[in-house]
Amino acid sequence: MDIRHLQYFLKAAQYKSFTKAAQSLYITQPTISKMIKSIEEELGVELFNRSGKQVELTDAGQVIFAQAQDIVNSFDNLSTELDDLMNLKRGRISIGLPPMIGSSFFPKVLGKFREQYPDVTIHLVEDGAKKVEADVESGQLDMGVVLSPTNEALFHSFSLVKEKLMVLIHPSHPLAEKEKVTLSELQKEFFVFFRKDFALHDRVIAECVRVGFHPQVIYESSQWDFISEMVAANLGVALLPEPICRELDKERIRVLPLVEPVIPWHLVMIWRKERYLSFAAREWLRFTQDLFRRGHGEDH
Q1: Which CATH architecture has domain 162-265?
Q2: What is the CATH number of domain 91-160+266-298?
Q3: Distance CA 32, CA 14 (A)
């Protein structure tokens, strides 16, 4: 017995006629009669009383009818759920995002995706890039935004944004009137840094060591707005990505290009190789990649 047998049985019970049921199903009357007979033989009971002009359910038939309705309804609901997933009417995506990303251009990307797929739920997890990468690797996240380069053996990726780090200093600082600042000019400064679980933390320290000094870190934070406020209070200098610097109050903070070296801020979307992605997740990747390729994702 399969779901089609039950569907035919329910139609016969509804119309109280094999002929009318067959017509509604666009099959022949012998086909439906044979199908009903097959169920009766399998269960060892008669489902219909065939003695009158109309077929009537027997006691056994009424028991089967109630159960068959639930089974067919469940099957129809399952088909609808799968169709919804296939058509992206529903779904859930988990994305890891460094806090600085969430507060700059990414909300616009999320807004555009939601316009097209309003019933897809996006669960955002804010963490440093190191933690995001680890959670994508373990499967706790479907995908995440991290700093390039990444482990190409583990992850697929595509580029989101290519920018660079800028220097933040107080307007009263002796370097404030310069057009650009080299990293070695900051060797005697106190730094306000991102926490150790942020990829920028290690990246900046490595560059400082490469030019000959180890930075004096006095504060660490996970929030770019707190870091910028520390600079505005003249408590230290900081390095932040260019898109974030565009949002800062230039009267309270001086923002200068960092040179020698230029430290890139290259963001990529990653997802684990050889791991299943839902229809919604795959559409998110396609949508986001297309958006950033056309440049709309970088509309600050």
Answers
A1: 3-Layer(aba) Sandwich (3.40)
A2: 3.40.190.10
A3: 13
pLDDT tens-digit map of 93-114: 999 988 766 556 678 888 899 9
pTM of the entire predicted model: 0.68
CATH 3.40.190.290-classified regions of the chain: 162-265
Question: Is residue 98 within 8 Å of 145, Cβ to Cβ?
Answer: yes
pLDDT score of 244: 83
Helix (H) or strand (E) holding 108: helix 106-116
In eight-state DSSP terms, residue 105 is T
Domain 3-86 has CATH 1.20.210.10: no
101 CB contacts (<8 Å, ≥6 apart)? 145, 267
pLDDT interval class at 299 (50, 70, 90): very low
Closest by CA position to 124, among listed 90, 91, 95, 99 = 95
Distance, CA of 70 to CA of 84 (rounded, Å): 21
CA nearest to 199, candidates 151, 254, 248: 151
